[in-house]
Design goal:
- The chain is α+β, with helices and mostly antiparallel strands and 499 residues long.
- The chain is built from 19 helices and 16 strands.
- The protein folds into 4 domains: 12-133, Beta-Lactamase, CATH 3.30.450; 139-251, 2-Layer Sandwich (Beta-Lactamase); 277-380, 2-Layer Sandwich (Beta-Lactamase), CATH 3.30.450.20; 397-483, Winged helix-like DNA-binding domain superfamily/Winged helix DNA-binding domain (Arc Repressor Mutant, subunit A, Orthogonal Bundle), CATH 1.10.10.10.
- Helix content is 38%, strand content 25%.
- The strands form 3 sheets. Strands 2-1-6-5-4-3 form a 6-stranded antiparallel sheet.
């Protein structure tokens, strides 16, 4: 039978060989507060090469090295980890910033753990200070902190262990109107950014599991009780000492307001389109696919709304000449709009309509569309034709018409000159005579001779006539007078009395 050997006795030298290659720094402190040994990592993270430079005693270490907490408060002598060990205290996770008191040196971040080695009787044999170098991690955290605070995009950081917000940047505060103290320390339940999320249940599951939360629309509660529309996403921070979730936001308020304004504009357009008293149609400019017609269009053509759906405008039975529509489409592509185009249409009962069409390009849903307004002028065309026929018959012999009747006819033919027609009755008999001779082509000298008037008197009459009928040239007076029947010839005799 093989005898079991007893526990192997490990000497101090062997122990030092074992821990000498560890990544963490290890410092042995004797019961009399001498620093008896430090491994290579402990020296390196202090930036020294020997125990003598580190400090041969705890007091010497205190005099050579300045320790601060992460809040930049200096540790007192009693708070130094080595003095605490010497008093028999044990600790773990103490993070301090270490810099030389004299000379230049970069600050180092150390995470310290202190343990006491006792002999068989329980008396302190030595103390061990274990040092984890957090300098690189701290530098990375500082870089992240600066980038986080400088990032204009709203962001929050949540600690997953207790679901409390630990950091908030200026972008989030500006977006919501919160103060820093209102956010940091509150939980995700108190400031619920996922309450209205599209995928709330999945987002909460991913949050608890530390998994990525994909972008989704949600709302953020505001201090005044309202909520702001946002897009939120969550990204776990894997390099942190403990798990965190970084929430980033995109403010949708302006987009939502723009969408609401667009909807309201479209609603107003739809109402105006539907209630317009003139026929209107809307179609895709490229495909000519019908989009909408208003009630006036249906009333004019006799079509039902179903007749205008799911078809092209050229497929409607209301166009005697469909090529007019394709020509209109080409003009729209070239000029973006047309105005006052004569076009023929046909009702469902096969009645021909004479119309005027005006159209312009509008953008709806990102597509170019043609909005056309149609005016039925069939009755006006018939009336004009009848009037022209009557005028042609009448003008065959105008001698039996009184001047008043001629003025009335002139008013019908030239409705825009109503005021001038009324002025005809305001001319004096002599001014009528002068105007008649002007219309016959006589100059002032001939009129003076014919009416036995002086040249100055004729010029005064001519000026009065111009003023009353609203013209400034002799040719315009001739046109005005001939349109109103001032064509009767007069003998060129000097029998008229002077006026």
């Amino acid at each position: 039978m093989v005898k079991r050997s007893g526990p192997t006795s490990i000497t101090h030298q062997q122990l030092r060989s074992i821990i000498g290659g560890l990544i963490d720094g290890v410092i042995f402190i004797e019961a009399d507060q001498r620093i008896s040994w430090a491994n290579e990592s402990a020296l390196k993270i202090h930036g020294v090469v020997s125990t003598e430079e580190l400090g041969p005693t705890v007091t010497a270490y205190f005099r050579r090295w300045l320790l601060k907490y992460r809040n930049h408060h200096e540790l007192t002598r009693a708070q130094y980890p080595m003095f605490r060990l010497a008093r028999g205290e044990q600790f773990d996770g103490v993070v301090v910033e270490v810099t030389p008191r004299k000379g230049e040196g970069e600050p180092r971040m150390h995470c310290l753990r202190g343990i006491t080695l006792n002999d068989d009787q329980g008396d302190p044999l030595a103390h061990v200070l274990i040092i984890e170098d957090l300098t690189e991690q701290h530098a990375a955290e500082q870089r992240f902190e600066r980038a986080f605070n400088a990032n204009p995009a709203p962001a929050l950081i949540c600690r997953l262990s207790d679901l409390r917000y630990t950091r908030v940047n200026a972008g989030f505060l500006a977006m919501t109107g919160y103060r820093h103290q209102d956010v940091v320390g509150s939980t995700v339940y108190e400031l619920d950014i996922l309450a209205d999320a599209d995928g709330k249940s999945q987002a909460i599951t991913n949050l608890h599991e530390g998994q990525t939360i994909l972008q989704m629309e949600s709302t953020v509660p505001l201090p005044d009780g309202s909520r702001k529309d946002v897009i939120v996403a969550g990204q776990p921070l894997e390099d942190a000492s403990e798990p965190y979730m970084l929430f980033t936001f995109i403010d949708l308020q302006l987009r939502k307001q723009a969408e609401q304004a667009l909807r309201q504009s479209e609603e107003r357009f739809s109402i105006a389109f539907r209630l317009a008293p003139v026929p209107m149609l809307l179609c895709d400019l490229k495909s000519l696919h019908m989009l909408e017609v208003n009630d006036s269009f249906l009333d004019m053509t006799g079509l039902q709304r179903g007749d205008t759906e799911a078809c092209e405008i050229t497929q409607l039975c209301i166009w005697p000449h469909p090529q007019q529509i394709t020509s209109l489409q080409a003009s729209m592509h070239e000029h973006s709009g047309v105005s006052g185009v004569d076009i023929q249409m046909r009702t469902k009962e096969n009645e021909t309509l004479e119309c005027i069409l005006s159209a312009d390009t509008v953008t709806i849903g990102g597509k170019a569309c043609m909005l056309a307004v149609i005016q039925d002028i069939t009755e006006r065309k018939h009336t004009e034709g009848e009037l022209l026929t009557a005028l042609d018959a009448v003008m065959q012999d105008t001698s039996w018409f009184s001047r008043k009747v001629m003025d009335q006819l002139a008013r019908v033919r030239q409705p825009a000159h109503d005021t001038h027609t009324q002025i005809t009755l305001e001319l004096t008999p002599r001014e009528r005579e002068v105007l008649s001779l002007i219309c016959q082509g006589h100059n002032d000298a001939e009129i003076s001779s014919a009416l036995s008037l002086s040249r100055n008197t004729v010029r005064n009459h001519v000026a009065n006539i111009y003023n009353k009928i609203g013209v400034s040239r002799r040719s315009d007076a001739v046109i005005w007078g001939r349109e109103r029947g001032f064509l009767a010839s007069r003998k060129m005799s000097g029998t008229s009395a002077r006026t």
